[in-house]
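ARCHIVE RECORD
Type: protein–small molecule complex
Small molecule: iron/sulfur cluster
Source of inputs: curated submission
Record status: active
Notes field left blank by submitter.
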Amino acid sequence: MKVSVDRSLCYGSAECAYRVPAVFAFEDGYGVVRPGQEGAGEDPEVAEAAEKCPSQAIVFAE
Ligand code: SF4
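STRUCTURE (tokenized, with ligand):
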């Protein structure tokens, strides 16, 4: 499963990058998925980061 950040929703709390630094980074005031980590959607830590994202900006797709 693929993971991405919907920049239109992200308000830049940086929590994703703090929780799962191997997958998320914080760039230019937004959370981003690190290049090459787009397929990390199955990772339970990523699921938890999505759950805890205060703006529900972390989204999944098949
Ligand atoms: S946790 Fe959510 S709101 Fe915060 S930087 Fe990450 S995607 Fe954006």
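CURATOR ANNOTATION: The CA atoms of residues 23 and 36 lie 9 Å apart.
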